[in-house]
Amino acid sequence: MYYDKLDDFPPDFLWGAASAAYQIEGAYDEDGKGPSIWDVYAHQPGNTFNGTTGDVAIDHYHHMAEDVALMAKMGLKAYRFSVAWARVIPDGDGAVNEAGLDFYRRLIRELKQNGIEPVLTLYHWDLPQALQDKYGGWESREVIPAFAKYCRTLFTAFKDDVKYWVTFNEQNVFTGLGYRWGNHPPKVQDVRRMFAANHIVNLANAIAIKLFHELVPNGLIGPSFGYGPVYPLTGAPTDVLAAVNADDFNNNWWLDVYCRGEYPYFMEKTLTRMGLMPDVTDADRALLKQAHPDFLGINYYHGGTVQQNRLEKPVAEAAKKDFSATDPYLMQPKEDQAQSPEVPMFNAVANPYLKKTDWGWEIDPVGFRVGLRQVYEKYRLPLFVTENGLGAVDQLANGEVDDQYRIDYLAAHLRTMKEAITDGVEMIGYCAWSFTDLLSWLNGYRKRYGFVYVDRDDDGPKQLRRIPKKSYYWYQQIIAQNGAQITEATK
Fold first, then answer.
1. Of the residues 1, 309, 435, 461, which has the fewest C-beta atoms closer than 10 A?
2. Distance from C-alpha of 408 to C-alpha of 386, rounded to nearest angstrom
3. Active-site residues (predicted)?
């Protein structure tokens, strides 16, 4: 749909930026904090780029006031952050660490005093190591009451100060990378265990949402999902069918549970046939039906393109692409494994029409609009973009960072988001990933996303100076004008 004129962004639109505790806080063992699975995993040789860890990260724990001042100067309307579970409850299900809780209390106070809406993420991948050791992490139902206790602690502490809450960040990514591909902790490579762990996370998500609605009646809560639309490579009906299958596998498997309280019939039947369907009790199904999110968080980087499955349409060995190691948002097995449910459904391929980032991620701003339209039409929940951004190798030159490429990337995505609003999609806000540079999980500190350059690298923290990039001042103007200057429709 082409428009001569786009609708304005809502007057209360939340222009924001995002982060995650492990990637920025540092202070990994200070003030009573317990170890998380990432603290342990990153210290094991060979697990991360150049052995980088979040021990110091960008030391947000000690630079919090400085970072919030930079947010305020930018004019940020919202800041999405996550709480480190092991900082608040060091062993995951025991006594509350008041010093850890106080850090987030001070952060929320600083944000509110500067007119910035806090958006609190309960879980961004850093499970307390004690729960991994004691129960086996997300493979055990024993973690659910521990998570509920943690949630109750935060709901009680911050129910009057935080309106927007996110339950789980990218459940589709951390279960896949942790339990199937073995690139993240707990470094398991077993697709059956992945689906089993994913079900337990679904139950924990439902428990959290039910508890939230009891304790925080004036707040809003929902999960953040790593979403991407799926395109057929060609107009061949077999490729179109493959795209329908891939959408069920990559998106509906999670979103239908979040928003409808049930597993999609096609995927459930497929996994049951393959012996991969997790154990779902009648009580589980009843619980999932009772949890209703107030909004849906969307993390968008790109979608995917597929063709007919390679069992019916064999491809040359060189054409088989393994996405699992380089791109957590587009995973496809290298081999036709007996327990690879996607193999008979679709074959993921590169999109010939899209350019890629330095890390091989496709750049697809139009897909952003497609995705927002698809999700809103299907579930009719307000959408909150909780991540979208560009990872790049930024260079500091003469005390400045000219990241025009990031501005171009974000501007294209903001334009298509504005088009989606004009289409009729109900949007709460947009949190760019990320506010500052941070630790990029397996990629160390070389892959930068932030509006603010942090003077550190993979060899050490250096001085940790904060230096606003060119994109910082660009986004400052976007916020000041509520996106009014984003007027050009994408043709």
1. 1
2. 19
3. 387 (nucleophile)
Query: d(Cα 341, Cα 277) in Å, to the nearest integer?
Result: 11
Q: Which residue has the tokens 């596998």?
A: 249
Task: Look up 387 and say whether it is catalytic.
Answer: yes
Tokens of 286: 């009843």
What residues contact 145, with CB distance under 8 A and at least 6 apart?
93
Encoding tokens for residue 165?
A: 């809450």
Q: Residue 285 sits in which domain range?
A: 14-480
Residue 63 has φ and ψ, to the nearest 5°, of -115, 15
Q: What is the mean pLDDT of each run of 10 residues along the chain (491 residues)?
A: 92 98 97 98 95 96 98 98 98 98 98 98 98 98 98 98 98 96 95 97 98 97 98 98 97 98 97 96 98 98 96 74 54 60 94 93 97 98 98 95 97 97 98 96 94 96 96 98 78 42
Residue 1 falls inside a structural domain? no
- Identify residue 34 by its one-letter amino acid code: G
Quick check: 491 and 424 in contact, CB under 8 A? no
Q: Residue 5 domain-assigned?
A: no
Catalytic site residue from 25, 117, 342, 387: 387
pTM for this entry: 0.95
The one-letter code for the residue type at 117 is E
